[in-house]
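Reply to dn_fold:

You asked what the input looked like. This is it:
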Amino acid sequence: MTTNGTLFTPEIVQYFIKNNIQIMFSLDGPKEVHDKNRIFAGSNRGSFEKLRDSMKMIYSMDRKYYKKNVSFNTVLDPQNELRTIYEFLDKDRLISKNLSRISVLNDNYTDKQCEFSGEFVEEQEYEYFKCFLSKLKRINEKFVARAVKEEFDNEMREIKQHEEKMQEEISKVNHHSGPCIPGAKKIFVTAEGNIYPCERVSEISEVSKIGDIKKGIDKNKVLNLLNIERYSQDRCKDCWAYQHCTICIACADDTKNISNKEIEKHCWKVRGGFEEAMKNYCTLKELGYKFEEYE
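and this is what came back:
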């Protein structure tokens, strides 16, 4: 379960421990970073201290459970200094031993485009470069931000899986449905009790809404979100990255309809991202790195 950690009580924690539920906390960095974007509705009060209290409570109630089942997801805002965030994740006693994932701020469904400064890009790329060097035993991996290393490992693990699906040409019969089955892999429940496929879609979208906690999941709405390719198949069938496409409803929904225009906006990102990951993979392989750890 992914959560901001603001509603935890001893009774809830005990239930999670008893049922071995995994928790991923949304934590963007130290207090001054986290509280910039993670504020309570109707106020300017940040949620860092409340989240911190929940972390401490779980840790004090069952340290083994905390170590095994608690992880963190950090969303990087390009306006913040990366080094400060990386150091916090690496050194904080309640975080440094647990899995951390990082992602960059997403500007889907917003009217304000996310701007990346040259300094942010350079700092991020330099950290990945150090990760390369550590894989090739040129530097000690202790000099690489742990969250970057884990993200890099996830990327390489996915590439290794993609390698097994490589083929000379696109199959004569195929169809890209989207990476997941809405409501099966994930479920996102809003404060009002509405159910969506995941946290990436818009909460004001009727297209992506697949039910609510009173009536359950509407299978017809789920079926409508499957087979995303039917909206863009004329373009998809000639795409070299067809087998590796990650476009789903979160990229196709304009809050009113499933939009071919929205899908097209994400195509270059998917191809570019996969191409860069393949370059990293091939470079490491050419330099002699063995990928056994990802098998």
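The mean pLDDT is 87.
Hope that clears it up.
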